[in-house]
Specification:
The protein is mainly alpha-helical. Helix content is about 55%, strand content about 5%. The C terminus is likely disordered.
Length: about 475
């Protein structure tokens, strides 16, 4: 091969002039200009966003064909090209940076050009011969970036929402399994990092499971707001240049081919300019991330040691923890999950700032919203699955350690208050601390309670449920 040979080029033009494009490229001049202008995130469009753009373009081609606005052979070629892109092909032809000016115009044009040139190829033509299939006149017919890109973001978000809620549901189930497994493991609870009152290890896992369940439920419900799309609204939501025959079927077709519960927004001007729904979704992801970070921090504390810390639970050992300290194993999964949670919270701030800085009929910063929101979905899904499979599922309890710490804790004095009063219970706690003995030993020495009474009062079943330990409680009333 001649080392001085140059790849074949084709010439394309736009309103700014002409450029040479690699002849075999499916992208065109608009994509090349955008790729040259924006080098910010260092990441391309999210794969799910590319897939969503392809689905939107297919739905529009079908709607335009049904409306008689697009020749069947052109519409079919665009649809075939869109199917290929949606299946993951031609991803290397999407060159635009995730962060871009123009409210997503560069991403929309990139999709238009790739689909047009692939459709041309399918029709037997040569890439760049836009007399066969034109990126704007055909692929973008009846559309604007301002309805295509927001719709694609919502489609991508709904799909990733399903994945994220699935992961949260799996984590909840894993935590609940440990709740059952550790139901009988008595330990000391802690408030403000000081001994409090006894709980079971199962109760701690139950509380984490409940928090994750709330996050799952909130995220599941927010899909109702995400499903409202402005496809057909074109530039500002008024539907200018969108034939009514197109407008009334495009959303329905997209719902059918995507399998998502999409609906045309009642007020498309609202959906075109306002991004508060994305802020809501991002905030719910952030709330879930906060809970994952808190759970991760608790797991690190409870597993700290193995000899100089709490050491009440043992996390799965996944990798060596130090290049200098032999035998050290670190809680790497909770640490990684916490870092994902920190990143989600940073993404949420970016989404919030981008949403509030939209002006009038359009938010120019939707690419920033899309980039950070879709990344947050990925992080939440990955973090929840990682925590469930690589950590929680393999946690073991050190029952002897848990019971030892509980029995030596001053927190057991709280269980005596209902029988001997706060002042006497306090005196017992202070004496136990000063003498190094247990609350039970000191309480028995005072003669205020018998050994039999203490056995009942200080039992796990009595101290970890509502009521005064050791006192008979009436059962529930009959209805």
């Amino acid at each position: 091969m001649d080392p001085d040979a140059h790849p074949a080029l084709r010439r394309e033009h736009d309103l700014l002039g002409e450029m040479q494009i690699p002849a075999e490229a499916y992208y065109g001049i608009h994509t090349v200009r955008a790729a040259g202008n924006f080098h910010l995130a260092g990441e391309g469009l999210h794969p799910e966003l590319i897939r969503a753009l392809a689905l939107v373009k297919k739905a529009c081609a079908l709607a335009n064909r049904r409306a008689g606005l697009l020749k069947p052979e052109i519409a079919d070629a665009i649809c075939r090209a869109a199917d290929e892109v949606a299946a993951g092909e031609l991803r290397d032809q999407f060159l635009t940076d995730a962060l871009q000016g123009g409210a997503g115009t560069s991403a929309n044009m990139n999709a238009n050009e790739v689909l047009a040139n692939r459709a041309i190829e399918l029709l037997g033509g040569t890439k760049g011969d836009y007399s066969l299939v034109h990126p704007l006149d055909h692929v973008n017919l009846s559309q604007s970036t301002n309805d295509v890109f927001p719709t694609a973001v919502r489609v991508a978000s709904l799909r990733l929402l399903q994945e994220a809620t699935g992961a949260m549901n799996r984590l909840q189930g894993t935590l609940q399994a440990k709740e059952t497994e550790f139901a009988g493991v008595l330990k000391i609870g802690r408030t403000e990092m000081q001994d409090a009152v006894p709980v079971t290890l199962g109760q701690e896992f139950a509380a984490w499971a409940q928090a994750v369940k709330r996050d799952w439920w909130r995220l599941y419900n927010v899909g109702e707001r995400l499903r409202q799309i402005n496809l057909g609204g074109t530039a500002v939501g008024t539907g200018l240049n969108a034939d009514l025959r197109f407008l009334y079927v495009a959303s329905d077709i997209l719902r059918e081919i995507s399998g998502l519960p999409l609906a045309r927004a009642e007020n498309m001007i609202d959906v075109t300019q306002n991004c508060d729904v994305f802020v809501e979704v991002s905030g719910l992801i952030r709330s879930a991330a906060v809970n994952l970070a808190k759970i991760s921090a608790d797991l690190r504390l409870l597993s700290s040691g193995p000899r100089a810390g709490f050491a009440e639970i043992r996390l799965p050992e996944l990798q060596a923890g130090s290049s200098i300290m032999p035998g050290k194993v670190n809680p790497v999964v909770p640490e990684a999950v916490a870092q994902a949670a920190f990143q989600i919270q940073a993404c949420d701030l970016a989404v919030t700032l981008a949403a509030q800085n939209g002006q009038l009929e359009l938010n120019a910063f939707l690419p920033c919203i899309a980039h950070n929101l879709l990344k947050s979905f990925d992080l939440l899904r990955g973090a929840a699955d990682l925590l469930a499979t690589k950590c929680v599922a393999g946690i073991e309890a050190d029952e002897q350690r848990c019971r030892q710490l509980a029995e030596n804790s001053l927190g057991l004095a709280t269980a005596l208050v209902g029988h001997i009063g706060y002042e006497k219970a306090t005196a017992i706690a202070r004496e136990a601390l000063a003498s190094g003995r247990t609350v039970r030993e000191v309480a028995l020495e005072t003669g205020l309670l018998s050994a039999e009474e203490l056995d009942v009062i200080l039992s796990a079943g009595e101290m970890t449920r509502p009521g005064v330990p050791g006192r008979n409680r009436p059962g529930p009333r009959e209805p």
